[in-house]
Fold allantoicase.
Amino acid sequence: MQVAAADIDQVFAHTTNLASCNLNSKVLACSNDYFASVDNLLTPTPAISRPGVFIHTGAWYDGWETRRHNPDPYDWAVIKLGVAAASIHGVEVDTAFFVGNYGEKAELQATYAPEGSGITDAQIADPSFAGWKTLLPASPCGPSQRRAWKLSDEISQSPYTHFRLLMYPDGGFARLRLYGHAIPPPAPAASASAPVEELSSALNGGVTLAASDEHYTPSSNILLPGRGKDMGDGWETARSRAAGHVDWVIAKLGLPGSVSKVVVDTKDFRGNFPRAVRVHGLVAGTAGEGVPSADDANWVEIVKGDKRCQADTEHVFGSDDLTAGGEDTRVFSHVKLTLVPDGGVKRFRVFGRRA
């Protein structure tokens, strides 16, 4: 089912774009990318235009662009997700700034070949690989516009690890976005004590559900792996003026579990970091249906009180900072980070043991 361009962000608001280099997704192979690199498909930020800028192959484009006059029915690109596996609920192909050279139709195929399956990336990247399943049949794209499709329940309930994007017959696509949910890797082998894992990571299925303000950058950035490269891949709110104002973000843990450590990283935020932060959680079973409200009576304090922040610093709140006085053995399903009064953070990490 096609989704209107104006509704794409709302329809897929509670999913993650898994076709992103920020989540370690990568292109394994493509038929051709003579004019513009296929890797641009996985850039997490919107495409940009640089009119009048030329490189040795021609005009500069922020996307994937192939040669003219393709002798085959389509050009193709094979992509491996950076997560262990994922369920996919929607597909977007963005042709931003491709007008006289956009790909006319897009088709998406997928396969499931998790680590240990015996199927290698090299086999999947080979044009002769026959294990593809069509998720989206060849569908029309338009010049310089976003086109998205919601997939059927049957398709979205299956796990996938690799995708092949077909572009008919040739031309350019700016971005590919695959909206869905990361499926966490299996639990480590049983031992006397479950290992500590990053319960909130987007790689483990963590997703932000709501935020008070996302004026500069989206709150979903705080669950990304690594420490990022600049202020643009964190979460920053507008300046507040009202007395007593706070900003907040609510995240659903990919792995519900106990909490042993919380990290709030203000890397790259120097003149605009929050004065302090608060961390609360919802014990599993108390969240109800849908998105919890910021003032839900069931929020409980995980980290003691307001914690002062500093510029460009990874703040680590361990056992002595937790209200439990050590590992909080309750099973949490959601967490809330509050900024006092506003500002920006790069990452928010919640560590513990999966239930």
Notes: The mean pLDDT is 97. Residues 197-354 form a domain with the Jelly Rolls fold (CATH 2.60.120.260). The longest helix spans residues 121-125.
